[in-house]
Structures are given as C-alpha cells and as structure tokens.
Amino acid sequence: MKKISLIATGIIILLFVSACGFAPPFKSDEQNFHMNPEPRDGERSEGSMGMGMMHGHDLPLDSSAGENELNVPPMLASDLETEDEVHYTIDAQAGKTEIFDNVETETLGYNGSFLGPVLKLKKGQTAHFTLKNSLDEETTFHWHGLIIDGEADGGPHTVLAPGEEKEITFDVVQDKATLWFHPHPEGETAKQVYDGLAGLMYIDDNGTDNYEYGKNDFPLIIQDKTFTEDKQLDYKAVRDPDGTMGETLLINGTVNPKLTVGKEKVRLRLLNGSNMRNYTFKLSNGEAFEQIATDGGLLNDPIEREKIELTPSERAEIVVDFSEIDDLDDLALIREDHEANEETVVLPFDVDENQAVTENKVEKSTNPVEITDEELEKPVTKEINLSGMGHHVAINGKKFDKDRIDLEQKQGETEVWEVKNERDMMGGMIHPFHIHGTQFKVISVNGEEPPAHLQGYKDTISIEPGDTAKLAVKFEEKGIYMYHCHILEHEDNGMMGQIEVK
Ligand code: C2O
Ligand code: CU
Ligand code: CU
Q1: What predicted TM-score, i.e. pTM, was given to this entire model?
Q2: Which of 211, 253, 341, 426 is the most exposed place for a label (fewest CB within 10 A)?
Q3: Tens digit of pLDDT for each residue in 8-31?
C-alpha cells in the first residue's frame, strides 16, 4: 500500500513538473541583463531550471494590429500653481471606458474612468494633493519612486474609506524622473491596479529639455489583461497567485495601438505597469536606440541598447531616431518572446513626413549618480531574503504583518542592503524588488559591478533566482515604508516587509 502511494505520488510529481515546464519566463540573450552570466553550479545553463521557471507562466501576448492611435494621457491641470507651490486634486473613481469599439468596459481610474492623468511636479516646489476616494471600496494613493515621508507615501496603513478625502503636502526634492502612482491597500493592490488604477507622475527640474509632451515625448504604460467574452475585466476569474497575466496588450489603455511620429528623435517613457509580466523590448529592425533614464531619472550618459528588459513597475526612458525612417518601412516596438520563439508587436509606428520636426537633444544628467568609496566599503547591514512562489512567498521567512516593523534605519544615513533571491527546488522566479520612499543605487550584482543600465537611480530591481544584489539605500524622510516584490500578487500574498525610518 505504502509503495503504491509512493509511486502514485511520484507520478503526480512528474506530471506536475512536466506540465509546468522548465522554460524560463524571462530569458534574455543580452549578456548584461544576466547579472550572473556564468553558470555557477551547472544549473544555470541554457534551458535549465535555474533562471526562473514558473507555473504555466507564459501566456502568449497578442500582437498589436495597429488599428488605434495611441491614447496620450492628459496632463492634470493644477488647482493652483506658483513657482513654489502646486495644488492637485486626485480622485479615484469607477467608470466605464470604451476600450473596444462600441463596448463599455467597467474600469477604475483617477480623475477619469481608466488609468490616470500625468501629474507634473517641479523640483523645489511644495506639492499639496487633495486625495478623494470615490470608489465603493478602500484604497490608498501610493507615489511609486517619490522621495516622500512615510505618512504621505500611501502604503497600506494610510487607507481612505469610500467617500473619504485627505490632504497631503510634501516638498519635491528629486531630479527629473518618470514616476508613477497606484493604490496599495493590503491584499487588494493587484486587483485595483488591474482594473485600471495607475497613473504617471513626472518630476521636472531646470534641465535643458526640449522634448514636447504628446508630440515627440510619449509615455507608454504597458499592461496585459484578459477580457471576458463581453469585454469586461474579471480579475477574480483570472487571478493567479504567481501574478496575473493576460493575452491582450494595452498601452495607455489603448488596445491595438499605433503611434504616429515625425521624422525626428522621439522620447518614449516606458512603464511596465503589468501585474507580473516581464518584457524584453526591442525595435523590429534590430537597430539600437538610446536609453537615457532609469526608474529614478537620467543616467549619467545615454547608453546604446538593442534590447531593454522591464519587470513590473520598472521604467526606462529611451530615444528612438525616426529621422532616417520612411513611412514605407514598418518599424515597431516589439517584445521578444522566448517561450514561443516569437515576437510580439507591441507598438507599430507610423511616420508622418509632413509633421514639423525639432532638433531634439538628448539631455544629460545635471546631477550625476555616483557610488562613493565610502559606500563601496560599507558592510552589509540589512539582509533581505526573497523566497517562494504562489502563496508561499516570503521575505526573510516571514509574511507581511501590518503590526510588525521588520527593519529600522536612520534618516539620511546610507546603509547597504543585500537582497537575495533564494533559489528553491523548483528554480524559483524573478522577483522585482521595490523599496518605497527612496531611490537607491546598485553597488553590485553577484559581487560584480552592475551593468550600465543599473548605474542610475532605481526604486525596483529585478533579481533572478540565485542572484544577490547589493544596494546603497538612503531615506531622506522619516516614517514607515514598505519594501516588497512588485509582482502584485506576491505583494498581496505577503511578500512585503516594513522599515521604520527615524
Ligand atoms: Cu509600486 Cu509598493 O509599490
Ligand atoms: Cu512604491
Ligand atoms: Cu515575487
């Protein structure tokens, strides 16, 4: 009897394992993305389980047919603005959106029915936000990537009940960057973001930028969703504890998008706003483009790239030169899909010869990011161990507890965090690790100097199974902040901790 059940268990395990497949969900040929290109123990070689296998986790993504001109989110008009101050009102609401022709989809949005406007802030200003919750459920307003005090940061402690309103005030202290905002209620973040709550926040400084929003400077909020037959979002029906994916791609809420540009340099601000999907972006003609910024702002120097990888919540600003492109060439932003050995068309471009062009300058950082010798020599004082999958995810073996402070740090003091993605029997998954209220610097990845695209300010870092990253982390403000995996279902499942900055 015992033997039979052992055999049966064996068969079940085998079936399970083969059904899952060992294919990595996010495999890149680009050397510098593989933070540790050397297989250490034979497990990391191509096609092995070492790089982050996932359960049935590579739902194909439909290519964009390019039928609809990309929606460009409006810039939110301020209630009042002076050189030193700006006031905004932000209202989380439910509504109906025509994503597909002649169909109304029930969605959530900020100051509108779906997604949100762009909030523009200037370095040096004091910002006043009136936050309103017009939803029939609790929510919070979290400013992802913003240097802000813990109380105003909008983590799970600062919930607004339905109908509630609240004011926050903060000083804008950081340099030019593309940040974003989304809700953060405990256990409900994934659903609310999936249903449409996500918007962009631009920080501006006195840099020499001559790109024009909506003309040659476009945000791309990239998300994947599953629609029901009658074109509704049914999060509960498709929820996956390891991260919900969909086969329908939306950019800025536009299905089957295309983007019409002039024959000039165009800046694209990419945000992976998906719950869990990772993307490897490149141009369909294989040409290189420039990356000018990461999560926290401009890189010291633009870097040439052929591909760019973004895990959930990461941003990258890139410049694509269309001056030599004819409208006859069909150029598109594509996603490399290793599983199916296919490419997904993410955003086809249309080049309009008649559009007036500008000499757009790739701007340079006015405030270079540098890792000091002192930072390099600092010992590790915070250890973060990411582990598990599905409902078993944990940080340092623990699940999130609102009433437990996991770490403490002093305001204004840099500490070195060592973040490790613990590989398990199944290989594990990539965990995009995010810290609230700060922009950190990457000191090393697996003991090596980080690749050029990680040598800028980051608030999220993608960590592959078995990899370890050392970060120089400093909080300018005080309060309680979250750190977590940005696969939103992992966050909701408790892959989150709290640090108190005093
Ligand atoms: Cu996008 Cu807790 O953050
Ligand atoms: Cu955040
Ligand atoms: Cu995770």
Answers
A1: 0.89
A2: 341
A3: 444 444 444 444 433 343 433 333
